[in-house]
Automatic annotation (TrEMBL), chain A:
Organism lineage: Bacteria, Bacillati, Bacillota, Bacilli, Bacillales
Native organism: Metabacillus lacus
Membrane topology: Multi-pass membrane protein
Sequence ranges assigned to domain NADH:quinone oxidoreductase/Mrp antiporter transmembrane in this UniProt record: 129-422
Keyword Ribosomal protein in record: no
UniProt subcellular location: Cell membrane; Membrane
One GO term (biological process): sodium ion transport
Domain MrpA C-terminal/MbhE, first and last residues per copy: 714-792
Segments crossing the lipid bilayer: 6-25, 32-50, 70-100, 112-128, 134-154, 166-187, 207-231, 243-261, 273-293, 300-321, 333-362, 374-396, 430-452, 473-496, 533-550, 596-618, 630-648, 655-673, 679-700, 712-732, 773-791
Cellular component annotations (GO), alphabetically ordered: plasma membrane
Span of the signal peptide: none
Protein name, entry field: Na+/H+ antiporter subunit A
Similarity comment text for this entry: Belongs to the CPA3 antiporters (TC 2.A.63) subunit A family.
Residues covered by the MrpA C-terminal/MbhD domain: 637-702
TrEMBL record, chain B:
Protein family per UniProt: Belongs to the CPA3 antiporters (TC 2.A.63) subunit C family.
Keywords recorded for this protein, A-Z: Cell membrane, Membrane, Transmembrane, Transmembrane helix
Pfam families: Oxidored_q2
GO CC annotation: plasma membrane
Organism, as annotated: Metabacillus lacus
Protein location: Cell membrane
Protein name from the UniProt record: Na(+)/H(+) antiporter subunit C
Principal localisation: membrane
Domain of life: Bacteria
Length: 802, 112
């Protein structure tokens, strides 16, 4: 347990304190106390930057379950540090924003900050854990806290729906990921990610390698809202806006990105990884941006935009995997994709966070997020407007903002796929730049819609619930900080390139670096008349044209029927599962006792019969049989006839008497087969039983009352014949397969010498195996007590209730 | 002899199963009684039916019948008797309270 562990776990400790602060300090907003923690953590993590720049990483281990190889190993390398800074930095801004966003009087602040801190700690744990099981633990904690935060206004139906949906999808992925980790463990014998990288050359051809990869990717894709699992993200927008800004744009949805980047050294050499990650990413990019244009809710636009941007980063990580196929660092043209991924990750967190906060301000000040009701807010909210322009232009990829730089690099990366001469990339690679370019046009479109539909055009005060005015300064500070970062990184990208981006790339592509080498990243605003620049000019030109003619071609969205959307598929699937399982249960749980007995008997026949057939268990030898005497034959016939009489008798009296006949012939068998004690007991007990039956006979109804005659049922007959047959077969085979000497010789030899009795059966009952007899007596006692209480104890319904 | 006994046991099991699958509670109880008879006979048969003296050391003989299955059967008889009598009284009481012994009408109420 070091300071680093304490830093990761500190949000959880703080979460314990929050309810007390909320209860005892009511006149100060609880958020002010919470704010201290992320700021402190941010400062703490900034200290790691110089060390990481020199290529050093910080590792410390705290033992958790050492016997299973599960230890809390905290690892701060370039990638982990980048995420830790994002989490704590944006976390601090979001907490500040939430202080002004959530009212002290109306909201349950303690639950909000408990969930938020829980999330922050879980997220730090995800990005700083080296052990996969610990990573998984924190991963599920992020799902859980996200669920709680989405359902924060739990009295709303839509919040609960969104929370449930995100829970089901992300937990599904999380479990798949756990499966992948376990498969990796089976191959390597370690849960440590660093050690796993060392095993990669040895396990690459293992038959579990690709399944493990697919399962882990499933976890990453569901968490990062990739196609087709993105559907939970738009519904998660029911959460309070600070939550959307923090979880659903900057941090949690990047956990999947983190996982892909973190495990790139493990899986990236396989063609499956290259194709799946980059294709899923590029499809998500296009589909997300295409759908964002048709949304009318500001947060829904941002949700689809997040989906699309995550797809962009994901596809860049996939393409970056290509660089591992070239050992040389010099002239390795594919590392630019990884660089673009890391760079855009940072940029997206800055501009998307500020845009969410802007939307929150608009919502807070006007009472609506519907762009059809909004317009003309520019003069009323000038600062908010400025931030929105900066964020949206950066998102659209316009100079001089940071989005422009990463978008140019994105185009570069996508164009270079066509030069990759492995895995058929030269044949199908052209699809990447085309989809990327189309996606960028739509990105430009919705960015413009976001800004200009909200802040320009006609002011419609009659449609708004409140009279809009500029937000309080505290609410504006966090987006102003983020927007300034957008501009600063846009103009001086190199301040983060050496300190943060290079170490992060070193963690994603460790095998490319020799000892002491480091990536050389230099980002220029102007890089000459390249194809990428012309692509951007094309994006702007077509985007402007598209925006101006938007009402005309908007109709193409109506071409897609509502029934075929993925949301409908999800809802239908969930409903189908419910009704399907209900129908299945109703189908076999009939409530009729007889049906259950029929299942039991049928399964007994099938299982025993098939086992006998498959294992060849049936064999019969005719040696060693006792001869059939005339008495036995006669009694056997009598017994069979009486048994059949019971079945066919129409009155209960004859059935009872026939049962008595079976019992008495059984005692005759006992006589013949040399069992005097058995014969005695059987005679007495049969007599008492028949008497008891006759006693009940008086009180029970005639068979006729329920069945005029015993109807013959074919299925019952088949089942009972099967049972009889199976029992006969088992009896025959058991009889001819006696393998060892009998234990009874011991009883025969010793019952007189050891126990002093000549009746061997009685000696066994009370001496050798006396315990059986003890509990048999207990059974009789319980039966007697049960009968007594059943007859005596008569609580009617009224008495029971009183 | 063992073959004959095995077949008789099979018939007993078959009749018992058929009775247990019927609608009347009394028939089901009779079926369980028949089933226990079959099981006891099966126990005895599977241990071999070779001739020998009864398992009493007072009778001088070379071979005795196997005493262990007899002890097991004795235990089983007593237990099945206890259970059967309990079951009978249960049937009697349920008929008194519910007014039917038709298994189909004794089906549970779905809305409880």
């Amino acid at each position: 347990m070091t300071l680093l562990h304490l830093a990761i776990l500190s949000p959880f400790l703080m979460a314990i304190l929050v309810p007390f602060i909320y209860k005892f300090v009511r006149n100060v907003h609880t958020g002010w106390f919470v704010l201290v923690l992320p700021v402190t953590l941010f400062v703490y993590f900034v200290q790691f930057i110089p060390r990481n720049m020199n290529g050093q990483t910080t590792i410390s281990t705290a033992e958790w379950i050492p016997s299973l190889g599960i230890n809390f190993t905290a690892l701060v390398d370039g990638l982990g540090l980048l995420f830790a800074l994002l989490i704590t930095g944006i976390g601090a801004l979001v907490v500040l924003y939430s202080i002004y966003y959530l009212s002290k009087e109306k909201e349950q602040l303690h639950s909000f900050y408990v969930y938020l801190l829980m999330f922050m700690g879980a997220m730090l744990g995800v990005v700083l854990s080296d052990n996969m099981i610990v990573l998984y633990t924190f991963w599920e904690l992020t799902s859980l806290s996200s669920f709680l935060l989405i359902g924060y206004w739990y009295h709303r139906e839509k919040s609960r729906y969104g929370a449930q949906k995100s829970m089901l999808i992300t937990v599904f992925g999380g479990l798949a990921m756990l499966g992948g980790f376990v498969l990796l463990y089976l191959m390597t014998g370690t849960f440590s990610i660093r050690e796993t990288i060392g095993y990669v050359p040895a396990i690459m051809d293992h038959y579990l390698f690709v399944p493990a990869m697919l399962l882990i990717l499933l976890g990453a894709f569901t968490k990062s809202a990739q196609f087709p699992f993105y559907i939970w993200l738009p519904d998660a927008m029911e959460a309070p806006t600070p939550v959307s800004a923090y979880l659903h744009s900057a941090t949690m949805v990047k956990a999947g990105i983190y996982l892909v980047a973190r495990l790139s050294p493990v899986f990236a050499l396989t063609p499956e990884w290259f194709w799946i990650v980059s294709t899923v990413g590029i499809i998500t990019l296009f589909w997300g941006s295409f759908n964002a244009v048709k949304q009318t809710d500001l947060k829904a636009i941002l949700a689809f935009s997040t989906v699309s941007q995550l797809g962009l980063i994901m596809s860049l990580l996939g393409v970056g995997a290509a660089s591992l196929h070239y050992d040389m660092l010099d002239d390795n043209i594919f590392t630019v994709a990884t660089l673009a991924a890391v760079f855009h990750l940072i940029n997206h967190a800055t501009f998307k966070g500020s845009l969410f906060m802007v939307v929150g301000i608009v919502d807070h000040e006007t009472g609506t997020r519907d762009i059809r009701k909004l317009g003309g807010l520019m003069s009323l909210m000038p600062i908010t407007f400025t931030i929105a322009v900066i964020g949206a232009f950066s998102m659209a990829g316009l100079p001089p903002f940071n989005g422009f730089l990463s978008k140019e690099m994105f185009f570069t990366g996508m164009l270079r796929v066509m030069e990759f001469d492995l895995f058929n990339a030269q044949t199908y690679g052209f699809i990447f730049p085309v989809l990327a370019w189309l996606g960028s046009i739509f990105t430009f479109l919705y960015s413009m819609v976001l800004v200009f539909r909200t802040f320009t055009g006609k002011y419609q005060p009659e449609k708004l619930e409140k009279k809009p005015h500029e937000a309080p300064i505290g609410m504006l500070i966090p987006p102003i900080i983020l927007a300034s970062l957008v501009i600063v990184i846009g103009f001086f990208p190199n301040i983060i390139s050496y300190s943060i981006i290079e170490p992060a790339m070193a963690s994603i592509l460790p095998t490319l670096l020799m000892e002491g080498e480091h990536f050389y990243v230099n980002i220029y605003m102007w890089h000459g008349w390249t194809p990428e620049l012309f692509m951007t000019i094309g994006v702007v030109a077509l985007g402007v044209l598209g925006y101006l003619t938007l009402p005309k071609w908007r109709r193409i969205y109506n071409l897609f029927p509502e029934k075929l959307t993925l949301n409908k598929a999800y809802d239908g699937g969930l409903k189908g599962l419910n009704t399907g399982s209900e129908r299945l249960t109703k189908f076999y749980m009939t409530g009729f006792f007889r049906d259950y007995l029929a299942y039991i008997f049928a399964f007994m026949i099938v299982i025993l019969g098939s086992t006998i057939a498959i294992k060849g268990a049936f064999s019969y030898s005719f040696d060693d049989l006792a001869p059939v005497g005339p008495y036995e034959a006669v009694i056997a016939v009598v017994m069979t006839l009486s048994a059949l009489t019971i079945v066919f008798s129409k009155s209960r009296l004859s059935a009872i008497i026939a049962l008595g006949a079976v019992g008495y012939s059984l005692s005759l068998f006992f006589v013949i087969f040399r069992a005097p004690d058995l014969a005695l007991t059987q005679l007495i007990i049969e007599t008492v039983s028949v008497a008891l039956f006759l006693l009940c006979f008086y009180h029970l109804p005639e068979f006729k009352k329920v069945e005029t005659k015993m109807r013959f049922k074919v299925e019952n007959f088949i089942i009972s014949a099967g049972v009889g047959l199976v029992v006969t077969l088992i009896a025959l085979s058991a009889n001819s397969q006696q393998v060892s000497d009998r234990i009874s010789n011991y009883f025969i030899e010793n019952s007189y010498y050891l126990a002093g009795g000549k009746n061997m059966v009685n000696v066994i009952l009370v001496d050798f195996r006396g315990f059986d007899t003890l509990f048999e007596v207990v059974v009789l006692g319980i039966a007697a007590l049960g009968i007594y209480s059943m007859i005596k104890l008569r609580l009617s319904r009224g008495e029971e209730q009183s | 002899m063992e073959i004959l006994m095995s077949i008789v046991v099979g018939i007993l099991f078959m009749a018992a199963t058929y009775l247990i699958l019927s609608r009347s509670l009394l028939r089901i109880i009779i079926g369980t009684g028949l089933l226990s008879h079959g099981a006891h006979l099966l126990l005895l048969t599977m241990s071999g039916l070779k001739q020998g003296a009864p398992p009493l050391l007072g009778i001088p003989a070379d071979t005795y019948a196997d005493p262990l299955p007899q002890a097991l059967i004795l235990t089983a008889i007593v237990i099945s008797f206890g259970v059967t009598s309990f079951f009978l009284v249960l049937a009697y009481r349920s008929y008194q309270e519910l007014g039917t012994d038709d298994m189909d009408r004794l089906r549970g109420n779905e809305h409880e």
